[in-house]
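May I ask for a sample protein chain and its fold as tokens?
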Amino acid sequence: MSQGRGQRPTAIKRLFRLRRVAESVMSLARSNFFSSAVSVISTATNTVTATIPGGSGPWGLAVTPDGSTVYVSNDKGSTVSVISTETNTVTATIPVGPSAFGLAATPDGSTVYVANGGSDTVSAIATATNTVTATITVPAEPLAFGVFIIRPSFAGTPGFSNCHGQSVAVLAQRYGGFSAAAAALGFPSVKALQNDVVEFCER
């Protein structure tokens, strides 16, 4: 049985997400561990267009869903560098736990989670203020690679008039209510999930 668009395999969803980010930012950032810098690469020419000095030992990065900001975890510096994709400059440096390896942004872009391998913790960063709002204790030496928070896919078909209604109805049925669906999928509010459904249906 073929899979509908609302049930695409994880690998395909990841590729679709990465393509959307590349199209919105028009560049990809690559962290350079030993030079403590981030290289900006034009996807049109595959050449380095800028080099951004950052924290010590940049290891992983995450792009906010709107493509405006890149968060870079600095392993040796125990910090996260915040980079504006409009100006290619560091706009903030956030102290986190030691050996900050991987990180990812939530689907609504409100929070960035950082895995701190040296302190067995995860730091939650509010993107509105670029401050750590919570430090979560986890099992030994947490690591994170690639995109580990995936924007959920929904039951409706993008571009169709019933996409929003069908998506909301299936979520409510599956989780026993729309509020329960928002909580189960990691959204901070019902409105945040509603906005994500709207964005999905407008693709």
User: Anything to note?
Assistant: Residues 5-137 form a domain with the Methylamine Dehydrogenase; Chain H fold (CATH 2.130.10.10). The CA atoms of residues 63 and 70 lie 5 Å apart. The two ends are 25 Å apart (CA to CA).
